[in-house]
Amino acid sequence: MKEIQNINCPCPDTKNLSEQATTKKSAYLFIRIALITAGVGLWFIIYRQLNSFAGFLTYGVFSMQQGSHLGEAVHFFLYDTPKVLMLLSLVIFGVGVIRTFFTPERTRKILAGKRESVGNVLSAFLGIVTPFCSCSAVPLFIGFVTAGVPLGVTLSFLIAAPMVNEIALVLLYGLLGWKIAGLYLITGLSVAIVAGWVIGRLGMEEQIEDWVREMRTNADDVPDNTLTWEERLQAGKTAVVDIVGKVWIYVIAGIAVGAGIHGYVPEGFMASIMGKSAWWSVPAGVVIGIPMYSNAAGIVPVIHALLGKGAALGTVLAFMMSVIALSLPEMVILRKVLKPRMIAVFVTVVGTGILMVGYLFNLII
Amino acid sequence: MEIKVCGPGCANCTKTENIVKEALETAGIDAQVYKITDFAEMAKLGVLSTPAIVINGKIKCVGKVPSKNEILEWIK
Question: What torsion do the CA atoms of B28, B49, B15, A335 make, to the nearest 10 degrees?
Fold first, then answer.
């Protein structure tokens, strides 16, 4: 099988974890906590200086003219790049630590035997915090379904996991503010919950490939290892190195494109194509987004710039959700366990949900 | 000894396989290493997240790339 390119793959690379964690002294932990506190403090101090520093570099050191296209673009780039990367590092560290408390096995235990509606809600939330990479979508699906997790509940998990993405959340917060980030979080969860519930109502269990339904798995013998706090912090650090190490180039490329649009594309340019009045742009965005398998890191900065030029929020958000939540490679993987009709229903239901989100935002904002 | 490395072939799974081989070399143990890429087989083994290592039918780790030292512990 071809290597799956998954930038957001949170499979923790814990290779250097226990090699360093052999000294399990509490004093060591205290030093580490002190270091982290100091680090976070320093983080805030630097973070607050970024804007003036970018201004100083652009207009002082490079002596560009304030208000000029080039100056605007350079300032945007110099401010946003470190800002986004810093936010990303902080949040990924936090998420990395939180994820050590959840494993797919534990999540399955929680979800098994849950009633549908409650299960859908719980499943979507767990989809965010459970470490999961799309490479293990299929074993996870099989594991869930064969252990008695209802199909719709399983799908809520599989929709929420890629849809509500911490990298997208950070970038939206950093570039567009907490309101839009919050809207993305809430609507992303809602689509996952409702779509999973709807598919559950449709009673499509017979659309799961036969060999899966005949299978009974027993995974209770999976070691339920408890980690020390030191290992959890180390996992957070590893997540930062791993994920930021992978996505920084996309972030910078995205911001550079965004900066170009920001400085050179005339105001209101996107209004006719992606504005509110263009009703067809929402479904067009969703359809275009399906075959695209980009990561949130590269797409959000571009979205940010488009919004500034008159693109409607709903249209842009629908496009982004479609890109990250509905991807062709994932469909191909899921095809191994789901019959084609089920895949079609899955895409239709999730796509419709995203479409509704798009129209809703265009309507209310 | 029979070691099964489960993973569809993403970067971390390949890394895991390499570490297992390294560990075997270090320990000087001759074991059969199988790469499991078939999802049905993974599920039968009880593996929910990859990469995972199954030694003599027992799941040793799931959803992470283990360190060489950990593997050395398991194959002792």
Answer: 120
Q: Domain-by-domain residue ranges, chain A?
A: 26-216+229-364
Q: Which domain holds residue B15?
A: 2-75
Distance from CA of B56 to the nearest CA of A (A): 13
Structure confidence at residue B43 (pLDDT): 78
Q: Which residues of A touch B44 (CB under 8 A)?
A: 215, 217
The residue whose two tokens read 């990303």 is: A88
CB contact under 8 A, B64 and A16: no
Is B7 at the interface with chain A, CB within 8 A? Answer: yes
Residue B69: which of A13, A18, A223 has the nearest Cβ? A18
Residue A215 burial (CB count, 10 A): 15
Cβ atoms within 10 A of the Cβ of A118, count? Answer: 11
Whether ipTM tops 0.90, in short, is no
Distance CA B25, CA A54 (A): 52
Flag if B40 and A142 touch (Cβ within 8 Å): yes
Known catalytic residues of B are: 10, 13
Structure tokens at A15: 């290779």
* Nearest by CB: B50 against A2, A139, A217: A139
CATH number, domain with residue B45: 3.40.30.10
Interatomic CA distance for residues B40 and B43, integer angstroms: 5
Instruction: Tell me the one-letter amino acid at A137.
Output: A
d(C-alpha A138, C-alpha A330), whole Å:
9
> For residue range A190-245, what is the model confidence (pLDDT) as tens digits?
999 999 999 999 888 888 888 887 776 655 555 556 777 878 888 888 888 888 88
Contacts of A223 in chain B (CB under 8 A): 59-61
pLDDT value of residue A2: 39
The domain total for chain B is: 1
Residues 134-153 of A with CB under 8 A from B: 135-136, 138-140, 142-144, 146
- Which residues does residue B34 pair with via DSSP β-bridges, in sequence order? B4
The residue ranking higher by pLDDT, B10 or A53, is A53
Amino acid A14: pLDDT: 47
What's the predicted TM-score (pTM) here?
0.78
CB < 8 Å to B13, chain A: 135
